[in-house]
Amino acid sequence: MHLHSTIARLRSASRVAVLTGAGVSAESGIPTFRDAQTGLWRKFDPLQLATAEAFARNPKLVWEWYEWRRELCRDKQPNPGHIALAEMATLFSDFTLITQNIDGLHQRAGSREVIELHGNLERDKCARENIVVDRAQARARDGMFACPRCGAYLRPDVVWFGETLPQESLDRAFRAAMQCDAFLAVGTSALVEPAASLPRVAKQAGAFVVEINPDETPLSPLADAVVRAKSGDALPALLAALREENK
Fold first, then answer.
1. pTM score > 0.85 for this model?
2. Is 4 a catalytic residue?
């Protein structure tokens, strides 16, 4: 589909949903999950660290790995793709941003009410009670932090292998997919479920589906429009075109 007709379809939409994946974060220099294994952590398989079993077995090791990953992210900045999405939200009466990323860069770019399917690296929660705990309220224990209520260790508020996604976030994401007029899948492999089902659900419900990804994915044949470019290039261009059409 020609870019102009894609813009026209998006311009006519009132409800827009966007799903972002690791490709958007990679453009800010944040390594993908597997690429993050460098230096001292090279010898560890991330699949053996990002589990509740690993944390129960050796909480200090898992905590230190996540502290290292947090440091990797803290000096990274939102890229033009993040910023374009934050600004794009103002153009539609209903705009839902759903992300598989855990780095918080969408919020730092100015996006509000981001649906985080896999959690957030900067948040901690009680490993026993599963409630978010502010580190300022926690107490130090064994080089980590403990829940002020029950004394259990805090852990990163991210979804580990073998865990289910937060139900409320998942419900909101699928509701947005079913109700939107247009759905953008940006920088996601379209392989990891249940997020991979979101654009398919949107398409079945009659939405116009756009894929923005430099690489072919399983979603590509189903998308109504495919933009073969990095999100940091495509999204600002899309935003500019939408604003031009809006004049």
1. yes
2. no
